[in-house]
Specification:
With 305 residues, this protein is an alpha/beta fold. It is 45% helix and 12% strand. Strands 1-2-3-4-5-6-7-8 form an eight-stranded parallel beta sheet, with helices on both faces. Helix 2 packs parallel to helix 11. It binds zinc ion.
Length: 305
């Protein structure tokens, strides 16, 4: 077959290839990754990672991962609380340059996930932990807790804990849907105008951006944590347009987190943090810095590294 017969019909394809080439060049020229400090506002150091004697991720392992990732502060909440207490008390944690902000986990075991909101012994446990404190100072928050049915936000212990959090200025870390945010915020005396609540995943079920926007406007103490958030990032691991607009609208109201709820998340800790650095790099530098560090540090009183 003659060459001319091959190439003439292919001309439109070649044009398309040229166009694709220039699109590829264009998207390759994206902003540099964010390179400043990270505040991991949603971290678990559960007993299957390390139970104090054995496990695949002893303190030296997790601290090395944080250090390699440029993580300079963490919200530690672990099942049971022993994991947070261990990280808070080790000299190696300070040597790694990691500030530990301990939260009281509501779970002593997996069974507590489904009944904590009506279990008085959980309320007693929280008060005991708060009175005891940690080697890194007093507990600064309560959670993470889950509500698989938002109506359980009205459980008697859930109500008492929200009132306690507001009274003692503790930050709440809640894995709940958008309906439960309204219910939880209604419990303290100020109707959610004072309570500070980190919304784990900013609605893992994918509450619409407009709904997240409305909740942010209604509750000044609501902060969105962005792990596992559906629809957050699009092509090239950059923010999708609607989420970019929301983060720019509320630059002081979002934080990032690893959510190391299973050991697999520890195995990929460095790449999780690198992935955040990629999309943070696509934001204006001051906004990236806020979401990466300043918002968590300001909320929880951690000094600049
Ligand atoms: Zn979690």
């Amino acid at each position: 077959m003659e060459n001319s017969k091959i190439f003439r019909p292919l001309a439109p394809v070649q044009k398309a290839l040229v166009a694709i080439f220039f699109i590829a060049i264009g998207s390759a020229v994206h902003a540099a990754d964010y390179s400043g400090p990270l505040f991991d506002a949603h971290l678990h150091y559960n007993e299957e990672a390390w139970d104090g004697k054995t496990g695949p991720h002893p303190p030296a392992d997790v601290l090395a991962r944080m250090k390699a990732s440029g993580v300079r502060a963490i919200v530690a909440n672990s099942r049971p609380n022993t994991g947070s207490l261990t990280l808070a008390g080790l000299p190696q944690t300070r040597e790694a340059g990691v500030a530990v902000v301990p939260f009281v986990r509501l779970y002593r075991n997996r069974a507590d996930y489904t009944g904590w909101f009506a279990d008085e012994s959980i309320y007693t446990m929280v008060q005991t932990e708060l009175a005891r404190g940690t080697a890194a100072g007093p507990y600064r928050g309560i959670g993470e807790f889950h509500l698989y049915d938002s109506a359980n936000a009205n459980g008697p212990v859930a109500k008492k804990l929200m009132a306690l959090a507001e009274e003692r200025d503790l930050v709440v870390l809640a894995h709940v849907d958008d309906a439960a945010i309204d219910l939880l915020m209604a419990h303290p005396p100020t109707q959610g105008q004072k309570l500070r609540l980190i919304w784990a995943h900013t609605g893992i079920g994918g509450a619409p951006v407009e709904r997240v926007d409305a909740l942010m406007a209604r509750y000044p103490g609501l902060v969105g944590e962005l792990s596992y958030r559906p629809g957050l990032v699009c092509d090239d691991n950059q923010l999708c347009p609607a989420w970019r607009a929301l983060l720019l609208k509320y630059p002081t109201r979002f934080v990032i987190g690893s959510d190391t709820w299973v050991n697999q998340r520890w195995q990929h800790y460095e790449s999780l943090m690198q992935s955040y650095r990629q999309w943070l790099g696509g934001l204006p530098a001051d906004v990236a810095r806020k979401i990466a560090w300043d918002n968590g540090a300001g909320l929880l009183g951690v000094a600049r590294p």
